Amino acid sequence: MLQLSRNIFFYKKINLNDSFETRIFLMFFHFSILMIIFKKKGKKFEQKEYDNVFFNIENNLRELGFGDVSVNKKMKDLNKLLYDILLKIDDSNKNDFKLNKKLVLKYFSSLKDENNPKTQDFERYFKEFYKFCFELPLENMIREILNFKG
Fold this sequence. Notes:
The chain is an all-alpha fold. It is globular, with a radius of gyration of 15 Å. It has helices at residues 2-5, 8-13, 20-40, 47-63, 68-88, 101-107, 117-135, 141-144. Helices cover 66% and strands 0% of the residues. The chain is built from eight helices and no strands.
């Protein structure tokens, strides 16, 4: 997920602020899409993959100098944030995927509005990411997502 959140597309073409917060939001958008695909295909997402994402975030927070109390609070907040994104990211009721633009603007306010060309590029990227991942076998999806060139 981290590699996807570092995609130059987000910082050069979309002009997102390259910050820890932005990368977390991008990681959670990608991660939520993966979890949605698993659900739509009728398979439970592996707990170890979920734990791995949060373990890596926790380690990064500690490397940034956060103490135990701060890390615990931040992790709790990030868990809530992931579920906010997960529950609201898909605006479709079918097997298709439609990115919730209001959610995008909530987390990426620099995109300004739904009709902004950068917002549309952002939406197109995640629609293509969904299609790419949906075609992958579930057993290999986590490994293969790094081949996405959105």
